[in-house]
């Protein structure tokens, strides 16, 4: 959903976008925010949606609105937003669920007024609100499920979760540990990491859960001897939000790599490249996770120019039995060399796969055949 918020913000030229949920007392509570940098003041947080207000009328009539100059708007609540929060332009569209009920509002704001209000902007915002509605729950029963998910994720974070295990990445030439990847683990029987992070995202806690995982992973750094590097996973929206910068600021240069996960699309490569360069300026390396899966393809590789490219296990699983997979692996190695990146093969489960990976020129490997994830650091050479 953060990708949809980002699309709304970029299309309208706004600095921040958010998703509000309607409460039973004619209020709106902000669930999810996407911003250009840190702009908390522009987000209402809580807003009145009673009849006669901008949002109240928009939800009642099921219509979007665009206010080009907020401080001159006829609606008093918009002028108050301009005065209190410094909004220059403001736009919104009701999020109507499939059963006809109104979930809340998709909102955008900017500190600068818009040059000219455009009808197509309102229509585009309404279109995105419809897509958002498809991601949300339409009934009270499922809304209750949503609350249960929110509470489950919130309690896990408050209890110090998630747990972290570590899996080494080996140099196949000399057998040494080059990288140690930190992986999140959750209570037995409650679902795997993909389920937890997906659920957290749907209830607006995705960034909080990712941040908690990275914070917990970094605790092992004092025990990690050079030249091994700790690798943590982060999604493009969390990286772009700079929400991890405070944690990274305390990490010594040359000890950390950030793996950009493949499960979320990137709508603004320019912004992500700026943050990539900032991280590199701190001595933090960039890894492209699961190359060949999900959204992670050639464009992401060429746009981000990572230090490491991790080939997805699905492309490694047949490298020793299907010549086409070997040809593809060689092509990734060649392209990676051209952009100055090293290649890591994920999911090595047999000696035959490890042998073939080495033959095609892949320097680093990770998988159960080499070492399983463990709560303790495994730093011995093979």
UniProtKB/TrEMBL annotation:
PROSITE patterns: EAL. Residues 146-382 form the EAL domain. Gene3D superfamilies: 3.30.450.40, EAL domain. SMART domains: EAL. GO terms for molecular function: cyclic-guanylate-specific phosphodiesterase activity. It comes from the Bacteria. InterPro entries: Cyclic-di-GMP_PDE-like (IPR050706), EAL_dom (IPR001633), EAL_sf (IPR035919), GAF (IPR003018), GAF-like_dom_sf (IPR029016). Pfam families: EAL, GAF. This is Diguanylate phosphodiesterase. It comes from Pseudofrankia inefficax (strain DSM 45817 / CECT 9037 / DDB 130130 / EuI1c) (Frankia inefficax). The lineage of its organism: Bacteria, Bacillati, Actinomycetota, Actinomycetes, Frankiales.
